[in-house]
Amino acid sequence: MKKVLSFDIDQTLNIAKTPVPDEIADxxxxxxxxxxxxxxxxxxxxxxxxxxxxxxxxxxxxxxQLEHLHLxxxxxxxxxxxxxxxxxxxxxxxxQVYNFPLKDEEVAKITNAIETAxxxxxxxxxxxxxxxxxxxxxxxxxxxxxALGQKAGTEEKYAWDPDTKKREKxxxxxxxxxxxxxxxxxxxxxxxxxTPGMNKQFGMNKLLEQLNVEKSDILYFGDMTQPGxxxxxxxxxxxxxxxxxSHEDTAFALRGILGVI
Length: 261
Ligand SMILES: [Mg+2]
Fold this sequence. Notes:
Number of domains: 2
Number of helices: 9
Structural class: alpha/beta
Oligomer: single chain
Low-confidence stretches: none
Number of strands: 11
Radius of gyration: 18 Å
Bound molecules: magnesium ion
Strand order of the largest sheet: 2-1-10-11
């Protein structure tokens, strides 16, 4: 039997950028009794709390169960685990095990390349931003372009680049301007820029090391498993992967897994 269930977040466990639905929260909580559960995504730690952890706690997950939840933040360039100090959940009981941040000059170079590319192509949607929002965000281990910002509505985001063509053009131009970085398409409007190798493959290798498991112990779920997608590095490693279209597919698969335990 697999020991680890690992998940992309956006579009795999939720509707992009929103907290996971009740059904997913309940299924993940049930899985914590049988597996190590490892979400891995380009997002920041606070988003992992909002989208996953707080939902599980709201739905009744116990601190002792959360010790089996491992957060591979910013594509696994940061890792957090839970050490229950009491029977009551506390955000302070999350411990950062490691962190590999980008250097300031790398952040500046990437930001400049993506902004220039998007502006040249007419995809710099500054006018669409809500107050206080930003298109390019420094997520410490990666720089993320979100065409319409973080706060835009879900429908609007889905409509912006459904066939990923706009982002492919931005990536191609950014790669000319700053070729020393890798650019991956994820979510609905996002591009993640990283130093080469700091993608989900890096995160999964860290997971293997930290949890002391083999590749064959892991089952991975993701929606962007095609070449160029941000889940593809996991497929390339030879880790068993289930490609999903949405959290509904993931829920279906998890019900099946829990049904045969
Ligand atoms: Mg995804």
